[in-house]
Amino acid sequence: MIIYISLFISIIILAILIFCNGKSKSKNKIFLFCSFGLMLLVMGLRDISVGTDTELYCTIFKNYGLMESIKQVLQKDTNIIYGLYNFFISKISTDNSMVIFCNSAIILILTAIFIYNNCSNVVFPTLLFMEFYHYFSAFNIARQYIAVLIIANSFYFLKNRMIWQYIGLNIIAIFVHNTAAIFLTLLPFLFIKISYKNINTLIVIYSIFIFLGEKLINIFINIFPHYAIYLGSQSRFLFTSGENRKIIITFIYIFIALLMRLILSKKNLIKSEEQNKFLLLYFINIMSIVVGFISLKSMSVARLEVYFSFFAIMTIPYCFEYIKRDRLICNVVFIVIMFIPMYIQLLSNNSEVVPYMFM
Q: pTM here?
């Protein structure tokens, strides 16, 4: 566990050294390159024993490596793009280190791009990426996190109402991990005015789905039967028992919603060019809670929550920008508080990332 704490501290030191004399886009790039480069060394050069499903992904990778043609890959399952990706990199090498490093590189590069394109303060979301345990969860469910990051990067096209680019990235994500289809629930925002009234209307409509949870699960399993193995599994949603971080994180989501609602109540506080972005993030934050309630019946649906909750690493710093006094102090206090659930999860070895070993 020492290596993860050292990594976290190293990123903070990097931030102090790089931004001590002010901010700029070039410094943002340097920080993201260095910090995510360090994360890649740890994540990409790990042993097969680090991460609950790392060995499983290596086995899947080797199975694709045994295939002789693209036709075989296309016939295997519905995760076509992930299958083709494994097939092609296996032609370079079938060693386990190949898929571990490539998966890690894709996840971290996409995360860095997402932060650079959407956050003026790149340090805050980078630290939250670790503190909200996304970094460590990606050791375990790498394929889904590739889909999550593709979805996250589609946000740029969503807020700018670029229909085909948004749909295109969503389709790619779905063929990496079928659960990414959940983000298609945001399609209405490409065709209706993004307003507070419309946001609230959709929140009410989607919240009704909570009461249809079991039926939704059955529909999902009928479409993607290979996820049936999760039926009856204990849900890992933040509101359920078994998660050490559940209380703190739950209050954080509620805090975000209340803070955003407060900001929305202040007329003219949000600039017109930021209106779409703010309202969409408000909707996504509420949906992370709504989808979480729906997920209580099944772990397969519980995994849908991360597509929405991932945006918290952007939403929190974005909301803090509206704090006019003592903003830096608020940022530091929040980072210190959020270190606690990360540390507790590492102690409990969530995602089986401890002990750490290099390959």
A: 0.88
